[in-house]
Amino acid sequence: MRRAVAQNGEASGGDLFSRIGAFLHDQRLSPEPAHYSFAYTVLSDPAGPLAKAVAELTDDGVRLSRSDIESLGGAVREGAAEEAENTGRLVEETHAQVEDLANVMRAMHDETRDFGRDLAARAEEMRRAGPTPGMAELARITGAMLGRIAESERRLADATRETDELRAKLAEARVVARRDPLTGLPNRRAFEEAYAAKQGGRLCLALCDVDRFKRINDGFGHGVGDRVLTAIADTLRVSCDGHLVARHGGEEFVVLIEGLTVERAAELLEDARAGVATKRFRSRETDRMIGRVTVSVGLTAVGADERLEDVLARADRLLYTAKSTGRDRLCVD
């Protein structure tokens, strides 16, 4: 990152926009005006104090933390995450409304069918009783009512079927909204819900970040980068079988370990880290060896009733320590 900022002074002004986009992507910042302004200030003056401070903090690929950005005068907006949160909430609310509608439609359908049956039975009783004054007109009215009831019943049956189909699609959308499409792992929303659902018990949380992932994307393309992420996700899933592994965003994964001491959890994560390090990746397109890919891990025990934000912040600091002391290692408190 230090070298990338230094090179900005030599690039053409027309290239600034693409470099801002790359900066936002690397630092996992959404394209909010506040983020754009911060990136512009950093990249438009590569010799300035802000650019130098950013280069120092992000030396050799370390990502800026929220506190880093805020200490440098920037602001962090949760635009993309908030949008995903709102979308998921809308799916939940719509699903609940459709559930209520389906129950109402089914009840109406049952009541209409029962009323039609009762009316038909009364009409049959009157027919068997023989002709009486006004019976013909009553039979005509009853027949018309039965016809209308039959039509209403048909429409209600159609509406109930369509409501059930919509409910099934929304149920599928709820699953999709909690699944990372690239790796198949639960996403951040699913992880947050799972954490909130945990009541007591022994828990540990780990953040795992792919080391120098930007070099893979830049050197081999995002397609190769995606395959590397998928392979690492599979390794973490197998190594941490029985525990929740989720994609937290970008090249970062989060693991919620239940029922183990922090020492045992460290052994589990150390096995996962070593498993990733032993893999060798090759570009399918060029047959070039990608080289050794590693992950750094920050692991911490979860306190009783501790907020997720506080646990993540502590794990992120440990992850930063792992990155800044050589990478391909686990740091635990």
Can you put this structure into words, describing what you see?
The protein has helices at 2-7, 16-26, 33-44, 49-57, 66-71, 79-128, 135-176, 188-197, 213-220, 222-239, 262-277, 308-324, and strands at residues 203-210, 244-249, 252-258, 280-282, 289-292, 295-301, 330-332. It is built from 12 helices and 7 strands. The two termini are 28 Å apart. Helix content is 62%, strand content 11%. The strands form 2 sheets. A 5-stranded mixed beta sheet has the order 2-3-1-6-7, sandwiched between helices. It has a two-stranded antiparallel ribbon with strand order 4-5. It folds into 3 domains: 2-77, no CATH class; 81-176, Orthogonal Bundle (Helix Hairpins), CATH 1.10.287; 188-332, Reverse transcriptase/Diguanylate cyclase domain (Alpha-Beta Plaits, 2-Layer Sandwich), CATH 3.30.70.270. With 333 residues, it is α+β, with helices and mostly antiparallel strands. It is elongated. Helix 10 packs antiparallel against helix 11. This is diguanylate cyclase.
Q: Largest beta sheet: what is the strand line-up?
A: 2-3-1-6-7
Can you tell me the number of structural domains?
A: 3
Mean pLDDT figure: 80
Q: Spell out the helices and strands N to C.
A: HHHHHHHHEHHEEHEEEHE
* Helix fraction bin: 55-70%
Content of β-strand: 5-15%
Shape, please? Answer: elongated
The largest sheet, given as strand count, sense and whether it forms a barrel, is: 5 strands, mixed
- CATH fold name of the largest domain: Alpha-Beta Plaits
CATH homology group of the largest domain: Reverse transcriptase/Diguanylate cyclase domain
Distance between the termini: 28 Å
**What is the count of β-strands?**
7
Label the structural class.
alpha+beta
> With helices defined by DSSP (H or I, 4 residues minimum), what is the helix count?
12
Low-confidence stretches are 6-13
Radius of gyration: 30 Å
CATH domain class name of the largest domain = Alpha Beta
| CATH architecture heading of the largest domain | 2-Layer Sandwich
EC number: 2.7.7.65
Catalytic activity: 2 GTP = 3',3'-c-di-GMP + 2 diphosphate
Organism: Sphingomonas lenta
InterPro entries: Diguanylate_Cyclase, GGDEF_dom, Nucleotide_cyclase, Rev_trsase/Diguanyl_cyclase
